[in-house]
Amino acid sequence: xxxxxxxxxxxxxxxxxxxxxxxxxxxxxxxxxxxxxxxxxxxxxxxxxxxxxxxxxxxxxxxxxxxxxxxxxxxxxxxxxxxxxxxxxxxxxxxxxxxxxxxxxxxxxxxxxxxxxxxxxxxxxxxxxxxxxxxxxxxxxxxxxxxxxxxxxxxxxxxxxxxxxxxxxxxxxxxxxxxxxxxxxxxxxxxxxxxxxxxxxxxxxxxxxxxxxxxxxxxxxxxxxxxxxxxxxxxxxxxxxxxxxxxxxxxxxxxxxxxxxxxxxxxxxxxxxxxxxx
Length: 278
Fold this sequence. Notes:
The protein has 278 residues and is of the alpha+beta class. It has 6 helices and 8 strands; from the N terminus they run βαβαββαββββααα. The protein is globular, with a radius of gyration of 22 Å. The relative contact order is 0.15.
């Protein structure tokens, strides 16, 4: 698993995805960056069904491309459930009032529909189902949620979609007012991605998917991946043999140190997550 393809073209999503999955050590591409074009019909009845439809459809295309034959394809389906509105907009969150309608209009419409509804009945949640299509044809799916309420006004500029009306009582602000790092820690997508990362790590340990090639993932502020780091070149013949030998002797030490650091970071992450494998 040297490549993960995420079935989305949303730059905001890719920023969050790369921040959370970067330490898996593999290349993370959006569907567009992988050169895959497909209009997937999401006709499932649940978030999980729609995520699986997207992941398997894009995986079928990727398997025909030699460079992505062993890639893991991830896809998500997410939305907002408002209890007072019978869990609307739900799986139709992106298409609510039309896909081309701005979220400022959508958000204000939802606030207007809840006029007169008291705080205790404005409960809502963001839901994110994340599906993985693995190289062996098997699939996995997980769900993440974030509980809150629908606010009374549109506030904040750090989020997108319905974030500006999703109020978090424990923080006294909307999810669009949280710092990006905090939002990733709390968000439905963040929770789902961390669950999926654990699934992928377990698959790696079980040998169900091939190991990750060691590399650093660089991310620009707009969520796009930078060009692949230049592979480590062989030493040119012009370099004296004694210098070549010193460098070659140093490489195993550097590789061992890198492996030790990677294992330490993994154990630290599992410890923070309360994982009982330590």
